[in-house]
Amino acid sequence: MKRFLMCEPKFFEVCYVINPWMEGNQGKVNSDLAKRQWNNLHDIVAKLASVDLVEPVAGLPDMVFTANAGLIHKNDVIVSSFRHAERQPEAKLFEAFFSSQGYRVLHLQEKTIFEGAGDALFDSQGRLWFGSGIRSESHALGEIVDALNAGEPDVEVCGLELIDPHWYHLDTAFCPLPEGQAIAYAKAFAGKSVAALDHAFGDNILWVSEHDARNFACNAISIGQSIILHKTSAELKSALKQRGFEIIETDVSEFLKAGGACKCLTLET
Ligand code: ARG
């Protein structure tokens, strides 16, 4: 059974702007609605997987986005080192949580910016896709390879370049699915990265429309044949159904105001 880490939105709000979606949304989060939406997502995930919780901390509104806590591989976790001062204090808190859970905590070089599973996603073949250019730094790739392969070298890491600040984390524009499948939004990536994804996934990658991308359709949680996401067009839904997936839509509108949706609210552990 898959396992996910989530963090209750007790202190969630938009009170600074570190991505384009947050612009104009300061003070606009409906906290009660956010809590209901988060509870709904939690209950959906908890029916299909087990869910652990990390304690939220006042003053760290984006801590709900546990995807950025770190990158988990087996019993190792590479803890994040956030680009923006507003999120930097989260790193130590997540690190303490992972230590308390018995993970071996790994760090990249002191100054290397790396935003965890927001920018690093394993596909169904065990390849790690790493997105850089907006948040995580491209040179983190080599350090991730070294960290993960220090024991038995087994992880192949493929770099992708993100080029549009709206798609600032890899998980906003790319979602690997079971059996070598994936969905992605092409305009988020440099041409060579689109080519790399095409080459790796062939007909098994579904390129989503701008409309679906803006509804964070790529920010999806994949559990078995189920795909949990905020919203999808009829076209994307039917294309995914044809590929054997069951789509579960759940409204996370309040979190979109901070530039995040379903997948960023979880970390697969
Ligand atoms: N406001 C948060 C930030 O800009 C949202 C993070 C969403 N996380 C993600 N993995 N896409 O950092």
Describe the structure.
There is one protein chain. This protein is of the alpha/beta class. The protein has a single domain, classed as L-arginine/glycine Amidinotransferase, Chain A. Helices cover 25% and strands 21% of the residues. The protein is built from seven helices and 15 strands. It has helices spanning 31-48, 90-100, 140-148, 191-201, 210-214, 234-242, 253-256; strands at 3-6, 50-53, 70-73, 76-79, 104-106, 120-122, 128-132, 157-161, 174-177, 181-184, 205-207, 221-223, 226-229, 246-249, 267-268. It has a three-stranded mixed beta sheet with strand order 2-1-15, covered by helices on one side. The protein has a three-stranded mixed beta sheet with strand order 3-4-5, with helices on both faces. The protein has a three-stranded mixed beta sheet with strand order 6-7-8. Strand 1 (3-6), helix 1 and strand 2 form a beta-alpha-beta unit. The longest helix is centred in the first third of the chain and has 18 residues, at 31-48. The radius of gyration is 17 Å and the shape is globular. The protein binds arginine. The site of arginine has 15 residues, from loops.
In short:
The chain is 25% helix and 21% strand. The chain is built from 7 helices and 15 strands. The protein has helices spanning 31-48, 90-100, 140-148, 191-201, 210-214, 234-242, 253-256; strands spanning 3-6, 50-53, 70-73, 76-79, 104-106, 120-122, 128-132, 157-161, 174-177, 181-184, 205-207, 221-223, 226-229, 246-249, 267-268.
